[in-house]
Amino acid sequence: MSTPNETVNHDELDEGRRTLLKMTGVGVAALGVASVAGPPVFAQGTTEWDKVFPKSDNVDHEKVNFKNRYGITLSADLYLPKNRPDGQLAAIVVSGPFGAVKEQSSGLYAQTMAERGFVTLAFDPSYTGESGGEPRNVASPDINTEDFSAAVDFIGLRPDVDRERIGVIGVCGWGGMALNAVAVDKRVKAVVASTMYDMTRVMSKGYNDSVSLEQRTKALEQLGQQRWADAEKGAPAYQPPYNVLKGGEAQFLVDYHDYYSTPRGYHKRAVNSGNAWTQTTPLSFMNMPILTYIAEISPRPVLFIHGEKAHSRYFSETAFAAAAEPKELMIIPGANHTDLYDKVNVIPFDKLQQFFDQHLSV
Question: One GO molecular-function annotation for this sequence (predicted)?
Fold first, then answer.
């Protein structure tokens, strides 16, 4: 991608693409490549059941909307136990993974926890899914942290919810956002991070913190050039479609494809299901570590859940080390990263119920 005042050096562009992919994970910021994926249409108000998991007969479901502190309308699914008692119940807010929608993992977690007696809310983060915000498919560590607190606002105003008994579950990249939100939002009484990514860490340092200062500088230079191109066009360019396999990919990329691009987990509105983030999405993540204040979650409890064989396991291990008591790290034997997205025989729902029953008790 060139500006009017420069000649493209394709070798440098290729190196920049490789560096950005290494730094930011799955398919982020393939600069210099023509935009081959556009944003999905923003749609709200769908009433049919369009989740990738079956509807439970033991819950009541309702689609709801609410605004965050920045005025963005968020779309969510509310789940309530069908045979709920009179009075106020404990509640749990859920979102994630990064690039997913509420019809996927977060909805499954929310519905399952509603079966177990909680009022739950699974929401689409700003700029994605059925939630509002323009341009489409852009992420922000600040705004997406705020989305969790806005969800707490909404669910805590319901007459059937005890606002003193609200918990949070964040999955994958939204596990890190959840921890950041709970550190600052003292209304939340307990938090679970499942198969967690710290998106600011992986985007700024690459997997296993392997990116050098020289590589980081080159990546930021590439992102700056993309800003010129977007400004000249008046609209953002998008990355190539996510989770399309060409052969020879690492196993964790195959695992992502197996979830997002097959009937197992495909959803047309998900960024990861053949759509894409804007090319400049990494910018605000590159110098904003979201887990700086993780110890301030204490004295409220935090539970980390991760697969033994997950490529991302080190995110939970280092976050667990930085967190203060009370804290717990639960490693699921034999599980990979995406097993904790939807495999109900792997996700430790009994543990989740026990954790929230204990820490959201009357």
Answer: hydrolase activity
